[in-house]
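fyi for ur records
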Amino acid sequence: MKLIFGIAALVVGPLGLPAAGWAQGSPGPGQMMHDWGWGWGGMWLGPLFMIGWLALLIAVLVFLVRWLSGGSGVIGRPPRTPRDILDERYARGEIDREEYLRRREDLSGE
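which gave:
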């Protein structure tokens, strides 16, 4: 878990640095309202960019968690039946043909 937070800090940390630098600057004379507040599409695009960055961050974190956990992306696979287990044991050579046929009959109820 510490590794995930470390990676997240490396990804998110540099994104906040330019904002800190921009906050220090102050507009000079004649720059106060030169675009009447409509730079980068106005105030309605600001929240969209913020949501976009947040969605990107969450997507990266989900990808990293799945990748590090070794998940295949499949939520669950169907459970193996006793017949599947018997077939696998016979294929591996753990049981011979007679025992395989006897147990298969027992499982099928014939």
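DSSP finds four helices and no strands in the chain. thats all i got for now
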